[in-house]
Structure formats: C-alpha cells, structure tokens
Amino acid sequence: MGTVIGFIGIGVMGKSMVRNLQKNGYHVLIYTRTKDKAEDLIREGAEWKESPKEVTGQSNIVITMVGYPHDVEHVYFGVDGIFNGISPGKIVVDMTTSTPTLAKKIAQEAQKRGIGALDAPVSGGDIGARNGTLSIMVGGSKETFERLKPVFEILGNNVVYQGEAGSGQHTKMCNQIAIASNMIGVMEALVYARKAGLDPEKMLQSISTGAAGSWSMSNLLPRVLKEDYSPGFFVKHFIKDMGIALEEAHKMDLKLPGLELAKQMYEAIAEKGEGESGTQALIKYWS
Amino acid sequence: MGTVIGFIGIGVMGKSMVRNLQKNGYHVLIYTRTKDKAEDLIREGAEWKESPKEVTGQSNIVITMVGYPHDVEHVYFGVDGIFNGISPGKIVVDMTTSTPTLAKKIAQEAQKRGIGALDAPVSGGDIGARNGTLSIMVGGSKETFERLKPVFEILGNNVVYQGEAGSGQHTKMCNQIAIASNMIGVMEALVYARKAGLDPEKMLQSISTGAAGSWSMSNLLPRVLKEDYSPGFFVKHFIKDMGIALEEAHKMDLKLPGLELAKQMYEAIAEKGEGESGTQALIKYWS
Questions:
Q1: Is the CATH code 3.90.580.10 the one for domain B4-164?
Q2: Fold (topology level) of B170-286
Q3: In CA terms, which of A24, A138, A162, B234 is 20 to 30 Å from B149?
Q4: Residue A2: its pLDDT value, please?
C-alpha cells in the first residue's frame, strides 16, 4: 500500500510504535524535538524531516505522541506545525494523553480544513507499545475511525471507538482516575501490613486474588517489595494526567475527592524528588 | 472421624460453611441468636444448642462467625460464653472480621486455659462460602494452625498462615484498606464517564483489562450499570471494618488518608439510607 505515515514524537512509546508500523510495511516519516533520539529509527529506515510541517506535507496520516498538552498545542498550531502544512483529505491522530478540550479544538480546526482528526490516547505502557498490545481509546468521527482501524490494530489489541471528538481523552481520564485512588489503597495496605508486623508477601498471597485484587496490586506492589522504583509510568506524567482530569471535572462541576487526594499525595512525593520515579514510589509518602 | 465442631453464628456465611463441614462428615453443633434462622440446618442434621457455652461443652473445635467485635466479645467472654464452658485441649477459631486487639485478648485467655486459639477471618463473600472457595487468613500458633488445616481446606481454597495471634485480622484489614480506596477510584471513573457523555460499557471495555483493572471494577461496576445495589457486602459492615482498620492504624501511629476519605464517603451514603445496600452503592455519593 502507498500510505505514508508521519510520526511526531519519538519517545519510549513512539519509537516502538514506529517500529511496529514499519514491520507492517508502512513507510514512516519522523520528527522529534531531539534528533539524537531518532538515530536508531533512521538507521532502520525511517525518514527524518525537519519539522512537524514537513512531516505533514508528505504524509497521508500524521500521528502525534508527544509529552504534555502544550507540546500538542505547539505541534499542531505552531508556525512549523501540522496545520501549517496540511491539505484536505489527510488524517491527524493525537495519541498523546492530553486534554479533551484540546482534542475538540484540534477536531474543529481539522473540520474547517477538510481533514479527519482523531484523539486516540493509549494505555499499556512501554511493554504494550513494544508488543502491539496497547489499549487504544478513540474519539472523533466514526468514519475516520473506520479508515484508521487497520493502523490502530497494528499498534494495539483493544481498540475501542468511544464517540465524538474528545471521547478518547475522556476515556483515558477515566483510566487514570481509577488508577489514582487504587494506588492509594494498594500502598496503604502495604504500609499497614509492615507496621502490623505482617510478612507482606504472605499478605499479598491472601488478598491479591480476591475482591481486593487489582493490576496495580499484582504488578506494582512486588516492585515495591524489591525496592524497584524504576518508571513503568513516571510520577510527573501521572501528576499531569490527574491535573487534566481534575480540570475537566471542574468544568463539568464534578467533585472527585479521591482524585484530589491522590494528586496531593503524588505532589508530596514529587517534592521529595520522586518525579522521575515510577508511580509505585507512592509508598515513599510514608517515609 | 469423631471430631465434633461447634459453630456459633448462622448468617449467610455461617450457614454455607456449616453445610460444607457436614458434607465432609463432621457432626456440627450450632447456636445463633435467632433460632429461626437455623431451622433448615437443624432439619439437615445440625444439632441445636441453647448457648455458646453449651455448644462448647460438647465440641472439640468451636468456630465463631458473628457480626461485630462486641458480638465476638460477648460470645467468648459472656456469662453463657465459650470461656465459661471450655476445657483444656480444645480449639477456638474466630472467623468473624473483628479487631486484631480482641483476637490477641482471646488468644491470651485461651493460652491461660490450655486451649488453642486462632483468628481466621475470610474473604470471598457468600459465593466463596457456598463453594468452599474462601480466602482464609490465619493468625495464632503455627501448631494449632496445622491441626486445623484440614477443616480450613474444606471451607476455603486459599488458606494462608499469617503469623502470631491477630495476624489474620490484620491481613483482613489490609484487604479492606485496599478495597476502600479502590472503590472510590472505580466510582469516580464511572461518574466522570457519565458526566463526560461517554458510554460506560465502552469505557469499561477500554480500561478494565489494563492497568486500571481490578476485581471491583469488573464485578461491581456492571452491577451499578444495572442499578443493582443488592448486597454482596453490606455498606454497614464495610464501615465497621474501616473503623477497625483506622483504630488499629491510629494505635500504630499510622496515617491512612485514603481510608479516612473512604470511610467518610461511605458514612455519607449510610446517612442517606444505604447501610443495607451493597458496597457498590457508593455511586450514590454523587446523587
């Protein structure tokens, strides 16, 4: 097939996603802020471009996977940005975890220009990106979604169309909201167990397969027991996401006390220097 | 085998547990506050006694499964209680979710009298009790645990010795602590999804099998979507358990902000009349 995919943002996630697209026969044009980070992909056949605008000019589909909402804003609306180099009939997909409000703004701008736009954040982390087993939550027009589905199915194994523009981001917020309070519960169980003189491994053996069980309990608590605080997901990014969710909730006049508490607790450990640690470093709230 | 088991407390859980013991050949003597509730068990061959003391006099092992810590206190230390009818060599097992402090008090009293004592609370609910698939968390002397193991293995399929007296109760507290904050996260995800105009079932499809996934999300949120608030586990009992955990944490000089918040939120819905509902009624915090 002659479809050319532009990919903007070559971080841990983006790099694996580009490789999966290449493996499936797509020619991929890439841009990221620091060219050094893309050297290996370039050696593997990805084509380097000097700006998001340049990437866009020669691609049929442009995927963005950058850091923060202000990066998304810049990549789409900046002087060298996507909307400055795009022609009708193309499709843009933001897979960054960003704000539903910005996703709607991009979709509106795209519609004016006859472009398809989707918000499609993911969960599943670096391992999911590598193995093509991401969960992809998609918002935007159903028709554009159907056209992009073959691409999403290369990148993920749980691809769900969630509704109008912004719905993908809203769904990702639900994901982060559920994780936030659960992380508190899981860490409080451990800190209680230690104080009470229990053997944490035996405690987990009793409770992790029942009603208290969760992905975080089974996957992150064992890391804490090994004092492994390496990032599966960065504390600083989690704080960003919780901030977005709280802001959106505020706009909807919705109070989320658990999420508020979780954000405060994560900010407390970030102040202690844990911003670059994995989210399991929440245990340090008590140290 | 000639072992006679006394069973005190014939609620939803107790009844199923007695039946499993009978199926495995044990003769069971029973007592519960309201005899009416035991009529079916009596027809099925259980032998009714008029008090905990009477049950104890004719049993080798006495199991208690009552409601609140003050019921446990009464059943063990009351005038017609277990310690008033017990002779050396017997074993008492409290399977009620009660306080670690009371578990230690029972163990001390038992030791003085040459009796074995275990605290062995469970998780797994009415279904686990019926199917003999409870998780049983055991505290007390290792030797007594080994003697009781064949009985526990009739009642549960995840029997773990946790350590000295009180450790079973402490482990159960870890279970409830982890559930408490997770329930907030799960409900906040749902309430956010609804406000944002998402289809909650699609949202769950995207997030329930990944890092946000948990037993509560997979098992309780679908009930909320069907407006089914029937109790798998009563709000009022959950509030009791959270109160015990907070009190124990306080004694250990440990602050658990997530648990504190969860208790407040559950108390708020109990005040709205949801005490007899299942814990998934937490969604009503927002209505």
A1: no
A2: N-(1-d-carboxylethyl)-l-norvaline Dehydrogenase; domain 2 (1.10.1040)
A3: B234
A4: 82
